[in-house]
Write a structure and sequence with these properties.
Elements (H helix, E strand, L loop, with lengths): L1 H17 L6 H23 L7 H12 L7 H17 L7 H8 L6 H4 L11 H12 L2 H4 L5 H7 L6 H10 L2
Helix pairs in contact: 1-3, 2-4
Protein name: General transcription factor II-I repeat domain-containing protein 2
């Protein structure tokens, strides 16, 4: 029961991070991928009986040490492997979004000439117009000053010139 309590706590934390308004899809995707990596970390730690990510299970282990019994975590590792597999299957389509996550994080790192438009055609119907706008955006020295804070980039940009990018960003907000 203590293992389940700890895992449900981690799942609830993920759930809360996925909720709310005005979040870009790249942040949500990042939360999912981050949680998948946490599951791998948890498995590694449980294999060595390192329980710092499982406070309730650690209490059980501390009790068992007092009565000279060792906690066997192999069953818990298998349960986490199963959960990890379910996450991989459920969110495998999100890997398709990775190429344009960089665009949302920092549009100035996109090489449109060599790599084309990073946005999936299913999201933006007019990728040709989007490529032109991206090239214009990449040459805007005023916006490059704010490249560490992407939201400022979108707020200070000339949205009349970047209408397709603005529509795309609006569509990607939750």
């Amino acid at each position: 029961m203590s293992f389940c309590t700890d895992v449900v706590h981690h799942l609830a934390t993920l759930n809360m991070s996925l909720q709310g308004k005005n979040k870009f899809i790249n942040n949500l995707v990042q939360d999912i991928f981050s949680f998948q990596n946490k599951l791998k970390l948890f498995q590694r730690d449980l294999r060595t009986n390192y329980l710092n990510h499982f406070p309730y299970l650690k209490k059980v282990e501390d009790y068992l040490v007092g009565i000279e019994t060792k906690l066997n975590c192999e069953d818990y590792v298998q349960k986490l492997e199963c959960l990890s597999t379910h996450f991989e299957d459920r969110f495998k389509d999100l890997k398709l979004l990775k190429p344009w996550n960089a665009f949302l994080e920092n549009p100035f790192v996109i090489n449109v000439i060599e790599n084309g438009c990073p946005i999936l055609k299913s999201i933006s119907m007019d990728t040709a117009a989007l490529e032109i706008e991206l090239l214009e955006l990449l040459e805007d020295e005023g916006l490059k000053q704010f490249n560490t804070v992407v939201i400022l980039c979108w707020n200070f940009g000339n949205m009349c010139l970047l209408l397709n990018i603005h529509k795309l960003l609006f569509a990607l907000k939750s």
